[in-house]
Every structure is written in C-alpha cells, then in structure tokens.
Structure to design on (239 residues):
C-alpha cells in the first residue's frame, strides 16, 4: 500500500493499492472472512447509484461488462430503478455470455423489465442525462477489445456526465497507462481503496465502502485506518 498518493478532504492519508494488492484483499475477504462477491457487489452498486443520483436526476444509461465491475453496474441500475429513475443498460456482450454474479444481477434486472440492450447502436439510440461506465474494472491487462472498446469510444461522443466504477475502463489500475480506447469520466467511484493508477486521471474521485473487514488488512500486514466515518463514501484527492 502507498499512503503518499491520496488524502481525504480533511488531509488524512488514504492508502492506495496496485491491482495485485487489490486482488489479495478480495481473496482474503472471500476465503478467510467469508464475504461473497454478491455482498461486495451489492455495496458497490448501492454506493455507485447514490453517487450517480448526486450528478443527475434524469435518465441514466449503464454500460456494463461481465465480471465484478459489470455486476456492480447492473446492481447500480437496480438501485436507480428502485428509486424510480429512468434507467437502461447497454451490455458489451450477448447476455447469454454473462456468468456468475454478473449473470445473477442481469436476471434480476430482466425480471424488473429494465431495458437491456447490447452494443454501440443501442447506446447511440439512448438519450441519457448521465452515463455509468462499468465495462471493465481493475483486472484489465492491455487494451480494451471488441464491443467494450467500441462503447468506450462512443462515450466520448456523448454530452453528459460520465461516472466510472472503480477505475475508468481502458486504464491500467496500477500505472494509469492507457494503451487503447478508454473512458474519460467526470467522476470515479473507486471501491474499498483507491488504485494507484488513479493519480493519472483528472476525474473527481470518490471512495466507496464495500464492507471489507479491517482484519483483512491486518492479515495482509497492511497499515490501514478506515476513512469512512458516518458515511459510506468519502471524497478523496490526490496529494
């Protein structure tokens, strides 16, 4: 962990992690402390939805891939729909290709009759007041490809705020490097701990609590003091 990169609005340091370090945090949380991906995803999606509602109260389109990041975006769409916001989802793949927790989130949205489509044509026909980028999370290695890359390019053509989940899709979470198409968000809602690569984005940053127990960091011998007081999210700034 690196405590020199970010701080809260009050000046308290917030440790940042590389992608490998975040994978270790997730592994210990699941294998040792029994947290499920769905539990963490629920917290991520709820906190992302709250951040999106602060940005815009009009229609929202969520761009979602598979895996944890896409599942968090789909969960966010459910929370927005539950609060009677007009929300639609554009996937970067056929729904039949979704697996695991992302598949579970998709099936819930489908049962709710939330509009779900695939690809850039669907995005071009939407008229959102805000976009949510939940295409790819901290696990990206290399450039975005396929429909995820096409959707990332398409976000640049939309004149509305963009909120990314965890890291902007297309950015290397550790280094901040961009080697292909990438989303350029107005805000990033990053999860549990900021990723070191976020020093390279000009977006506003918000850290969201996904209920990782303090004991996870203790087991990893990582110094950690929770930045969350009475809130589940906190503004963070670059040093």
């Amino acid at each position: 962990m690196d405590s020199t990169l970010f701080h809260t609005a009050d000046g308290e340091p917030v440790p940042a992690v590389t992608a490998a370090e975040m994978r270790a945090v997730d592994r210990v949380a699941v294998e040792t402390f029994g947290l499920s991906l769905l539990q963490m995803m629920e917290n991520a999606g709820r906190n992302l939805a709250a951040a999106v509602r602060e940005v815009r109260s009009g229609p929202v389109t969520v761009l979602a891939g598979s895996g944890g990041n896409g599942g968090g975006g789909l969960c966010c769409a459910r929370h927005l729909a539950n609060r009677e916001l007009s929300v639609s989802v554009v996937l970067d793949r056929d729904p039949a290709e979704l697996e695991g927790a992302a598949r579970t989130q998709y099936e819930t949205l489908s049962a709710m009759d939330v509009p779900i489509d695939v690809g850039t044509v669907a995005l071009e026909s939407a008229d959102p007041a805000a976009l949510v980028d939940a295409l790819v999370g901290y696990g990206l290695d290399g450039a975005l490809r396929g429909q995820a890359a096409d959707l990332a390019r398409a976000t640049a053509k939309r004149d509305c705020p963009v909120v990314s989940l965890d890291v902007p899709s297309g950015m290397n979470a550790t280094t901040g490097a961009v080697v292909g198409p990438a989303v350029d968000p107005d805000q990033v809602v990053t999860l549990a701990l900021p990723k070191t690569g976020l020093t390279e984005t000009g977006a506003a940053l918000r850290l969201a609590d996904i209920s990782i127990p303090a004991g996870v960091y203790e087991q990893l011998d990582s110094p950690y003091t929770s930045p969350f007081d009475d809130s589940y999210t906190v503004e963070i700034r670059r040093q």
